[in-house]
Amino acid sequence: MSELDPRFPPELEQEICLQTYFLCTTTKKPRSVHLMLVARRFHDWVAKHKYCTLQQLSHEHNIFEKLVPASSGKYYGPFVKHLMMGGAQDKDQLETLLRHCPNVVDLAIWSPHDTSLFVELLATESRSVRLRSISTNFSSLSEDDIVGPAFSKVSHLDVTNMGGKELARWTILTRLPELTHLIINEEVTPEVIRCLLKGCQHLQILVLARSPGYDLGTEIRDRRLVLLKISRYTIDDWMAFVNGTSEDIFSIAESISRAKSAGYKDCHTRWISSHRVKEDLMELGYHGNI
């Protein structure tokens, strides 16, 4: 009688589970919850995908609120990689959420509470990873907060408010060693722009995001500088970024930067709408990949 082991290799079993999960998510009546009940290992495999993004500002995307009791945060929190928090939640609720989510790499804090209140939690050694991106109000952060361990690995930064127009305040950002992409949502002087372009060692994209645009008073010819007509970095933009689509603000800015590299000089002075990038660039004569 054969003694062959009838069990699938773990890697193959996991692949079958995940492919079934992805198929479930495309149907009109998703059955992923049923799949998670097959076995504890199935539950954990699916949870890594199902709960990797937690966006609390709108009920549409707040999976935890729909499916997970608050008491289960300690179990589900470690699955979260991308976290947007704030809104009406109080300081204690936000702190509890951060403690339950030690593996977050992309964080948006859109809250009336000062970001400085959460820096210690983000810098603690108990966090298994450091942030890749953050979108928040920097006005409450000290220089030590900004250059400390909490943001030491940040490559993508969205500053909603820096807390001052002085050059010395903005110069602090040049000390972020991994910074490659930066969005600024307030008017800044040409001196600040030149300082960031020169001082941020690895900077690839610097987006000025305003609607309507404003007169810089001078032309700064640098392919990395993108003038984007947008009222605000939105929830959908953030979701597009963490989901890795090509329609997030950073990707759009990279398209405009490529047009500059191709020699379309009008891109240096024109504020381009984030909702009609292709049309605006074609008006300037650029027909390359966007």
- C-alpha end-to-end distance: 63 Å
Task: Give the overall silhouette.
Answer: globular
Mean pLDDT: 80
> How would you spell out the order of helices and strands?
HHHEHHEHEHEHEHEHEEHHEH
Main-sheet strand order equals 1-2-3-4-5-6-7-8-9
**How many extended strands?**
9
Helices, by number, come to: 13
Summed up, the domain count is 3
Q: Which percent band covers the strand fraction? A: 5-15%
Q: Indicate the percent of residues in helices.
A: 25-40%
**What's the Cα radius of gyration?**
22 Å
Largest sheet, strands/sense/barrel: 9 strands, parallel
Backbone structural class: alpha/beta
InterPro entries: LRR_dom_sf
Describe the 3D structure:
The chain is α/β, with parallel strands linked by helices. The chain folds into three domains: 10-50, no CATH class; 52-142, no CATH class; 155-290, no CATH class. Helix content is 36%, strand content 14%. It contains 13 helices and nine strands. It has a nine-stranded parallel sheet, sandwiched between helices. Strand 3, helix 7 (119-123) and strand 4 form a beta-alpha-beta unit. The protein is globular. InterPro entries: LRR_dom_sf (IPR032675).
List descriptors:
3 domains, 13 helices, LRR_dom_sf, 9 strands, alpha/beta
Short structural summary:
The longest helix has 16 residues.
Topology, pairings included?
Elements: H1 10-25, H2 32-36, H3 40-50, E1 53-55, H4 63-67, H5 73-76, E2 82-86, H6 91-100, E3 106-110, H7 119-123, E4 133-137, H8 143-147, E5 156-161, H9 167-171, E6 181-184, H10 190-199, E7 205-210, E8 225-229, H11 235-242, H12 249-261, E9 272-273, H13 277-283
Parallel strand pairs: 1-2, 2-3, 3-4, 4-5, 5-6, 6-7, 7-8, 8-9
